[in-house]
Amino acid sequence: MLDLQKAKRLLKERGLTLVIVKDGKVIFETEKSGIQGFLEAIEKFNEMLAGSSVADKIIGRAAALLCAYSKVKEAFASVLSFDGKKILEENKIYYEFEDLVPRILDKDRRESCPFERFSKSINNPREAYTKLRKLAEKLAKQEKFNNRVF
Prior knowledge:
5 strands; alpha/beta; five-stranded mixed sheet; Cytidine Deaminase, domain 2
């Protein structure tokens, strides 16, 4: 619980989007939005994330599946979706949250987040990680292309 409390405090004090603490030490933090930060943490630390505590600004279904894949011990979300809560419970991950919402919206707040829509039919955490990583790479390439000056 001390790790979770530290992660929560740092998330709020530093205005971060994700903080991962293990054995009293911050092993990862980011300001990146979406699940990109969590994917980076998995790429960099992989098995070291097992047993860690995660404080995330938003945990929906996709982020909860990444928590399960990483074998985190406990999680805090400023905003937690119904589907994210269900995944955490199914994977026996202790969780806390501030706001519980029906779904996570995209940046324009018009429809569900693309990662949430994409992960809707995925229940296996390993499969989710593989597919979410590929989707994130695809979306990043599209964004770079769309932001080019012609």
